[in-house]
Amino acid sequence: MMDSIFIIFGLFMVFEGIMPTLAPRVYRRMLTFVSQQQEGSLRKGGLVMIGIGTLIVFIAKS
What we know:
Layout: H1 2-22, H2 24-35, H3 39-61
């Protein structure tokens, strides 16, 4: 179980590092755009991402 958690965390770090490595200017613009959004919009986006992630895990485990 702990091995899986470390693998998931490692993959998360890899995916998070791809954008700033390949396109730092686009990444900076994206961060500026996100920082200007309303909290409600960010929450809705976060909920959508949680839902999609849960669905992906559910499908992968089936």
